[in-house]
């Protein structure tokens, strides 16, 4: 970890079982405030399960998970925002309303302060001018940015993203990755990004956590000690990509 301060996200000996399936077994992870961590691993190793537990969507699990020093339990935490693989937008609602869904329950979305917050988020994710558009008028990348803005609406300390770019073409994906970096740098939000894409993981993250096995556990942690802005073709980055890929292939 990059600092000696208390981690904003602390996972100790996390175990999660679904009926007969043990999805996670003894996962330890500490994420520092403002850190960008990527989680990679083969299909079925428990990546989404890990994010679901972190976000409070899973009531029952073993071990301890704390965000900002507070235990995560059923019902989710205001401190955590989640972006799913598919944008999951309401097709009858416009961009503004779709983002407002992510506001805290006690905030009236029509109150001036709330409208201002949503307007800010629309600008943050680069969708100025599209507030009144509906999902069927947006490209895949734009829809994903609405989903990102919704995940940020709580102003969470930790933003969790589950393969948010996997459905996008290569160029759009590269754009969205840079956009996420801009948002992360501007807001200082701690990020945990699950991805299948090792290139994406090393390009974006401060650390890459490799989950593996069945049940899943942490197999390796690779530090990406390379200054930003990074070059995707940087030799060091490519070497780290190979290192992570080698761990995955074991
Ligand atoms: N709701 C559920 N009920 C029963 N088993 C589940 C449930 N959700 C996940 N599992 C099982 O838990 C294990 C981990 O699943 P999870 O979705 O976390 O994997 P993943 O790493 O996200 O996979 P992928 O890369 O394919 O998205 C798998 O064996 C899966 O079948
Ligand atoms: Mg998954």
| Overall pLDDT score | 92
Which distinct ligands sit in these coordinates?
A: adenosine-5'-triphosphate, magnesium ion
Q: How can the largest sheet be summarized?
A: 6 strands, mixed
State the total count of DSSP E strands. 10
CATH architecture term of the domain at 1-79 and 158-169 and 195-250: 3-Layer(aba) Sandwich
Provide the helix percentage. 25-40%
Oligomer: single chain
Short description:
The chain has helices at 47-54, 95-100, 112-124, 140-152, 170-187, 198-204, 235-249, and strands at residues 9-18, 21-31, 36-40, 62-67, 70-71, 80-83, 158-162, 190-194, 207-212, 217-223. By secondary structure, the protein is an alpha/beta fold.
Can you give keywords for this protein?
250 residues; alpha/beta; Rossmann fold; 6-stranded mixed β-sheet; 4-stranded antiparallel β-sheet; globular; binds adenosine-5'-triphosphate; binds magnesium ion
